[in-house]
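Obj.: predict assembly geometry.
Materials: sequence records (below).
Method: joint structure prediction, all chains together.
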Amino acid sequence: MEVFRWIEQQLTPQPCSTDVLIYDDMDSQSGYSLPIIYQPFDGTKESHWADRGSTYDFLDATGGENRTLLDFGPGDGWPSLLVAPFTRKVVGLDSSRKRVQVCRENARRLGITNAEFISYEAAAALPLPHDSFDGITAASSVEQAPDPRSILAEFHRILRPGGRLRICYEDLARYQEGRQQAMWISDLDQQTCKILLYDRDIPCEYVIQYAITLAMPRQELLERLGSRSPTFSHLTLSLLKQVEPMVVKTRRSRTIHPSGKTWAHWLKDLGFNQVMPTHSGKRAAIAMYRWFSDAKRPRNMADVDDTIRPAVRLAVNLECPLELNPHITAVK
Ligand SMILES: C[S@@+](CC[C@H](N)C(=O)[O-])C[C@H]1O[C@@H](n2cnc3c(N)ncnc32)[C@H](O)[C@@H]1O
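Observations (raw structure tokens):
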């Protein structure tokens, strides 16, 4: 692609890990959208049922209540802060210091005392002892690390024998023709914005992400792009040349995004005794939400939980074809 070639040659991006590229800059990694963590639970919303389904998915697939869990890459505290009330202890490990700070603040605000959040250097070994966790949750996070396979090896090391890993991930199959490239623009402060670009190689399972920081308000950049919600196709070489004098820094990160087949192959290869691709609790909860009429659908959280929990338990034990890039449970 012409645009990416120009960025490489002209802006000489500095290589970095994704925590530096994106997660350290975000006040909320979820845009403050998470039920319970940022919004009161609302049983009339499908997305809130889905979130409860995902929470019980991670809890049940890692062995249920009263365990010691590691949550790898918790972002705003998901799922750590939601599973914490059911567990003995949760440790959230994130290489982004900003994310750890946000998780700690969220735990404090929610009155959660059995969740601890710690940081480490992205490419280092995980700062946790051998055989120390009953379960590990990893939601859309391992593929953000510089070397996902080595993270799985670390998970195997720190799980106790019989311990369970539950992982969901961003596979690239979801990005169809025309969506291999993408652009997002965020404001860092009133005078500075950041262009995030994604160049996805779907068959080879990797993504190159660029972050171009500009000394320019977001609004001004949108005006130059000629759209309030621009897509990658709005970004032209002539626009990049125009804004080049305002570029403060350019960073680049290469991330590997394995498909379900690749994850399963790695997990077996690393010595996990069972590797089970399964259906998800989220989908089970959504199906139940849709099954009820608006008038009959339970609304308060305890009733929703009672309603979905048996279906979630079933889903996380029901095999799903790897071709669909499903959630995976791996047992040491
Ligand atoms: C897409 S977010 C997912 C957050 C959360 N689990 C969720 O599902 O909402 C990815 C998270 O992984 C973290 N991350 C990126 N690289 C990491 C690494 N090497 N080790 C641990 N966490 C990492 C990011 O800082 C971020 O919090």
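Conclusions so far: DSSP finds eleven helices and twelve strands in the chain.
To do: check interface contacts against the pulldown list.
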